[in-house]
Amino acid sequence: MDSLSQRVNDKDCKNIVNTVIKVFNAQNSKQGRKVPNWKVLEGTPRQPTNVECDYYVMRFNRHIATNPSL
């Protein structure tokens, strides 16, 4: 989830997102998917310092938007 970190907090982030989705669905009487399908994207590059974040976000947004298999 973070191109700078070593992904030590991914489990915590997933728990937070899953909880928010459950609360949202309960408050809005939604019957959608109970939890998201999480995928590990192997081979994603790490940013070398803390100043390239915007570049990495935009690069992966473009990749996701132009890749129909995602």
Q: Could you please describe the fold and organization of this structure?
A:
The protein is an all-alpha fold and 70 residues long. It has one domain. 46% of the residues lie in helices and 0% in strands. The protein contains 2 helices and no strands. The chain has helices spanning 10-27, 53-66. The mean pLDDT is 76.
Compressed to H and E, one letter per element, the order equals HH
Structural class of the helix and strand makeup?
mainly alpha
Low-confidence stretches: none
As a percent range, the share of helical residues equals 40-55%
For the record, the count of structural domains works out to 1
> Termini, distance in Å?
16 Å
User: Mind telling me the C-alpha Rg?
Assistant: 15 Å
- Count up the helices: 2
Largest sheet: none
Number of strands: 0
Outline type: elongated
Mean pLDDT reading: 76
- Report the sheet-strand fraction: under 5%
In terms of topology, how is this protein built?
Layout: H1 10-27, H2 53-66
Short overview:
The chain has 70 residues and is an all-alpha fold.
Structure keywords:
elongated; mainly alpha; 70 residues; single chain; 0% strand; 2 helices
